[in-house]
Amino acid sequence: MAVLHLKIITPKRVALEKEVEKITVPSTSGEITILPKHAFLFTLLSEGIVRYKTGREDEYLAIGGGYLETDGERVELLVTRAYGQDAIDQAATEKAIEHAKVEMKTPKDKQQLKEVSSLLRKSLIDMKLLKKKAPKTFSEH
């Protein structure tokens, strides 16, 4: 079976490098699934959940925004962050969501609203990732 060489790069390191059957990413225009022999593509990524298939299993991780490039044989993601379920503290994430919801009701200024919105968005992505199947060992913040 044909595979893709997936490489996920953050400012700190190469976060993941492996052979996958397919990958689904959150782009700024919606979700995109890349299969082997996909046409050349360069696109902007939104923060969200990446799903990739290795064998019979789907694996998941959260990413920050960035870029994706593929030539149909390799897929490279350059993102601000990438991490798995094991890097998320559920209690702290739930607390962050509640805090952000309170702060959004009465922001001091536009900058605070922007920061709180970003925290809420990241925390909601983290909670969504926690609801996926059993965690894999994969960490980076």
From TrEMBL:
| Keyword Nucleotide-binding on entry | no
Summary of subunit composition and partner proteins: F-type ATPases have 2 components, CF(1) - the catalytic core - and CF(0) - the membrane proton channel. CF(1) has five subunits: alpha(3), beta(3), gamma(1), delta(1), epsilon(1). CF(0) has three main subunits: a, b and c.
Q: What does this protein do?
A: Produces ATP from ADP in the presence of a proton gradient across the membrane.
Recorded superkingdom:
Bacteria
Protein family (similarity comment): Belongs to the ATPase epsilon chain family.
Q: Which SUPFAM superfamilies match?
A: Epsilon subunit of F1F0-ATP synthase N-terminal domain (SSF51344)
Protein location: Cell membrane; Endomembrane system
- Coiled-coil stretches, from where to where? none
Q: Which UniProt keywords apply?
A: ATP synthesis, Cell membrane, CF(1), Hydrogen ion transport, Ion transport, Membrane, Transport
Topological relation to the membrane, as annotated: Peripheral membrane protein
Primary subcellular site in the record, as a coarse category: membrane
The gene is atpC
* Entry protein name: ATP synthase epsilon chain
Q: Which NCBIfam families match?
A: ATP_synt_epsi (TIGR01216)
Q: Where does the ATP synthase F1 complex delta/epsilon subunit N-terminal domain lie? A: 4-82
Q: What taxonomic ancestry is recorded?
A: Bacteria, Candidatus Roizmaniibacteriota
